[in-house]
Design brief:
CATH superfamily of the largest domain: Intergrase catalytic core
Oligomer: single chain
Number of helices: 16
Radius of gyration: 33 Å
Largest sheet: 3 strands, antiparallel
CATH topology of the largest domain: hpI Integrase, Chain A
CATH class of the largest domain: Mainly Alpha
Shape: elongated
């Protein structure tokens, strides 16, 4: 016959503290344990609570259906066979959590839509990139809750992609899943278990002075709306594929003060910055305004993004047949010319709105353009 459990505090000489023994069936680990207290009154209070729990446990146990008792016993046998200290209660609680999470979860497509709606500040380009990733996941099905998605499901979508595209998709997916976690639609981010592709390091690519001169000349002669695009990218370093350029207004360009203001709401970094309006940029913008008769009440860039990309491709094909367009090449050229024409690294950092290490900026762009070419860069005029 089992001895009755006595919930009485005892003094431990070795620990110099009072302790109360907890039987296995009341312990969180399923093993006998001890609770230690410095004060005897605290130990007595804990012992009283344990005694009450023990009594309630006995009453509830006697009222359990024999079939359920048998099922619980069989469940523990299977857990014990695994040789690990699993708790039946913790497993049940985890199953309940997963079931409830699934009921309140959204599908992966609904999550993408919610994420895009919540990120109203995103540029049109970034928004389109997110929707492109969403489109890839339509093959999984619209009814799959995001809480059910595992790394293997994501890998299935990413496997056909090139390394650069894979990494871009993973960055977007990581942000979308983190958003879902904050909304309590899922518990874990499966992207954390996937590896980014290792890409070979490549030197910064820039345009030659002649290429920039010809792109601007052709634009001024045949496609006037492209002049601000090439000029602001090459001589102000504005991020071409983001709101920094497409949402820039003429009121942001202060011709008298020779300053361009990149408002915080259009800056990629979310921080306001000031860019010098250099003489050759001033000359190109003035030539554009004089020839186009464009009123200064409209955005500087008037072409839709898709039309702008097509015009850029056509003009560059005339300048350098057979050569691929250099992504971010205008901004890279601006940074290279800044650093290699006796501007300070601080001037370059401020103009670019760079928030990383100035050392990294210096290592990327120093000597990317010969000093003579950098000096001539600011003499590219209409």
């Amino acid at each position: 016959m089992a001895r009755p459990v006595k919930f009485l505090p005892h003094w431990s000489e070795s620990d110099q503290a009072w302790f109360v023994s907890i039987p296995p069936k009341l312990s969180k680990t399923g093993k006998r344990a001890r609770l230690f207290f410095k004060d005897k009154h605290d130990a007595l209070r804990a012992a009283s609570n344990l005694k009450e729990r023990h009594q309630k446990f006995g009453v509830s146990l006697s009222s359990i259906d024999p079939i359920r008792l048998t099922e619980a016993s069989e469940a523990y046998k299977r857990l014990d066979a695994l040789g690990r200290p699993y708790s039946l209660l913790s497993i049940v609680q985890d199953w309940i959590y997963r079931t409830e999470a699934k009921s309140r979860s959204k599908t992966i497509l609904e999550t993408f839509d919610a994420y895009v709606e919540a990120k109203g500040h995103l540029s049109a380009v970034h928004r389109q990139q997110i929707l492109t990733v969403k489109h890839r996941f339509e093959q999984i099905g619209t009814a799959v809750p995001i809480s059910d998605l595992e790394p293997k499901h994501i890998e299935q979508v990413l496997s056909p992609l090139a390394s650069g595209s894979r990494n871009r998709y993973l960055r977007i997916l990581r942000a979308v899943f983190n958003y879902a976690i904050r909304k309590d639609w899922t518990k874990q981010n499966p992207v954390d278990k996937l590896d980014f592709a290792v890409l070979p390091k490549r030197s910064i690519e820039i345009f030659t002075n002649n290429q920039i001169q010809r792109m601007l000349d052709i634009s001024l002669a045949t496609t006037i709306a492209m002049v601000p695009y090439f000029a602001l990218g090459a001589f102000a370093g504005l991020r071409v594929d983001s709101g920094e350029m497409t949402k820039l207004e003429w009121s942001d360009i202060h011709f008298n003060e020779k300053t361009i203001v990149v408002r915080a709401e259009i800056a990629k970094t979310g921080r306001k910055r000031f860019i010098p309006l250099v003489d050759n940029l001033n000359a190109w913008l003035t030539a554009y305004l004089n020839k186009s008769l464009q009123p200064r009440t409209k955005p500087v860039i008037t072409l839709p993004y898709g039309t702008l990309r097509k015009a850029r491709k056509r003009i560059f094909a005339l300048v350098s047949p057979g050569q691929a367009w250099i992504p971010a090449g205008l901004r890279h050229s601006f940074a290279s010319a800044m650093i290699n024409s006796r501007r300070t690294i601080d001037d370059t950092v401020l103009a670019l709105g760079h928030i990383g290490s100035p050392t990294m900026l210096w290592n990327n762009y120093h000597l990317a353009m010969p000093t003579e070419q950098a000096e001539e860069y600011w003499k590219i005029l209409p």
